[in-house]
């Protein structure tokens, strides 16, 4: 029997902003770029009271909560805080699976500190996060990942909820099926048509029926209804590199590639922001009309801290290509590699995005 903790920082980015700027405390804070196509990265609980949610278009959030204070996200800083949280986790276990900067699964079946129960480990972690980082985390403790995740949500914010092995049924049977992982609107409606609204009703369905209705996911539903989830906590396998590339419609010269490189750098930048760590090296990849591939790279002393910086480096890498200005290219790519743990705060330059 495993002992799993799901730890989830409360309104993480917004809480970091409120922690670091006392004027923001107690106020509706929305972490987002305030432009037409951007979405809410995080909302303080004061903003959530107006219906603002993560991933909602920023413009909609502003309509819902006109008094909200918008703060441009500062991912390098959130990554740094996230690293501090991870350090606290690591005192208890090395089996840590980060889901995002603010969320992770921990397998504490065996833990380093000798605390007798997973509940005590979760409590210790929450205490240290509060004392050392001045932030709050909610935690769920359960015999597996899916129940731990449900549990961490149960007493949010700043809550701890434990599902003991002998309490699984009491928790699961009355649960609306929409709360189960993977059950979205469509599945929920389909289940409702079968007369299934709760965990208990779902458990009444035979495996063959579920498989017939939902294919492979039906098997998963059958297991979820019984509190079964064998998935393991998979420790982070650090990303080595990420890249994006485009085959161009007609072959272009290096000069003509500028708009394409800008577009690729933008895509790469948003992909890289999902990474907990920052990448040091920027790579430009080119394939000539004659199918010759070449790469050029540059490693600045600090990881690029904005899309503009990344774009500038990628564009400048063209100067290191010496095939002449008439050479044409059929493919271009931009990449980031050499991912590093964020440096300590003191070593970081001031970063604005
Ligand atoms: Mg969170």
What does this structure look like?
The chain contains 13 helices and twelve strands. The model is unreliable at 344-353 (pLDDT under 50). Helices cover 35% and strands 22% of the residues. Among the domains are: 13-74, MutS, DNA mismatch repair protein, domain I, CATH 3.40.1170; 173-225, DNA polymerase, domain 1, CATH 1.10.150.20; 241-347, DNA polymerase, Y-family, little finger domain (Dna Ligase, domain 1, 2-Layer Sandwich), CATH 3.30.1490.100. The strands form three sheets. Strands 5-6-1-7-8 form a five-stranded mixed beta sheet. Strands 9-12-10-11 form a four-stranded antiparallel beta sheet, covered by helices on one side. Strands 3-2-4 form a three-stranded mixed beta sheet. With 353 residues, the chain is of the alpha+beta class. The longest helix is centred in the first third of the chain and has 16 residues, at 75-90. The protein binds magnesium ion. The site of magnesium ion (MG) has 5 residues, from strand 1. Magnesium ion (MG) binds next to strand 1.
Secondary-structure topology with pairs:
Layout: E1 4-9, H1 12-20, E2 29-31, E3 42-43, H2 45-48, H3 58-64, E4 69-71, H4 75-90, E5 96-100, E6 103-107, H5 118-133, E7 137-142, H6 145-154, E8 160-162, H7 168-172, H8 185-193, H9 199-203, H10 207-214, H11 216-225, E9 241-253, H12 258-272, E10 278-288, E11 293-298, H13 307-316, E12 328-340
Parallel strand pairs: 2-4, 7-8
Antiparallel strand pairs: 1-6, 1-7, 2-3, 5-6, 9-12, 10-11, 10-12
Magnesium ion (MG) binds next to β1.
């Amino acid at each position: 029997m495993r002992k799993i903790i799901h730890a989830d920082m409360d309104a993480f980015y917004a809480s970091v902003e409120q922690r670091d700027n006392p004027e923001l405390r107690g106020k509706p804070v929305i972490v987002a770029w305030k432009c037409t196509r951007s979405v809410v990265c995080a909302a303080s609980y004061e903003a959530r009271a107006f219906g603002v949610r993560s991933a909602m278009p920023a413009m909609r959030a502003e309509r819902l909560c006109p008094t909200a204070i918008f703060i441009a996200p500062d991912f390098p800083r959130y990554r740094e805080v996230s690293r501090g949280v991870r350090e606290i986790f690591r005192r208890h276990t090395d089996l840590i699976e980060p889901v995002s900067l603010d969320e992770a699964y921990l397998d504490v079946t065996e833990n380093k500190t000798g605390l007798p129960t997973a509940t005590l480990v979760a409590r210790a972690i929450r205490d240290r996060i509060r004392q050392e980082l001045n932030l709050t985390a909610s935690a769920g403790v359960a015999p597996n990942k899916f129940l731990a995740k449900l549990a961490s949500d149960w007493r949010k914010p700043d809550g701890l909820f434990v599902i003991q092995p002998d309490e699984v049924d009491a928790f699961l049977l009355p649960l609306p099926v929409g709360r189960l992982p993977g059950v979205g609107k469509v599945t929920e409606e389909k289940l409702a048509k079968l007369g299934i609204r709760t965990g208990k009703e779902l458990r009444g369905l035979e495996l063959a029926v579920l498989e017939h209705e939902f294919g492979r996911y039906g098997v998963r539903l059958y297991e979820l209804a019984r509190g079964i989830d064998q998935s393991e906590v998979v420790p982070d396998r650090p990303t080595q590199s990420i890249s994006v590339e485009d085959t161009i419609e007609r072959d272009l010269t290096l000069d003509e590639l500028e708009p394409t490189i800008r577009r690729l750098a933008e895509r790469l930048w948003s992909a890289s922001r999902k990474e907990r760590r920052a990448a040091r090296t920027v790579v430009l990849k080119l394939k000539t009309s004659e199918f010759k591939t070449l790469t050029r790279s540059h490693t600045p002393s600090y990881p690029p801290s904005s899309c503009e910086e990344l774009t500038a480096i990628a564009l400048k890498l063209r100067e290191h290509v010496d095939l002449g200005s008439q050479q044409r290219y059929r493919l271009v790519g931009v990449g980031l590699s050499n991912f590093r743990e964020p440096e300590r705060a003191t070593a970081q330059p001031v970063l604005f995005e």
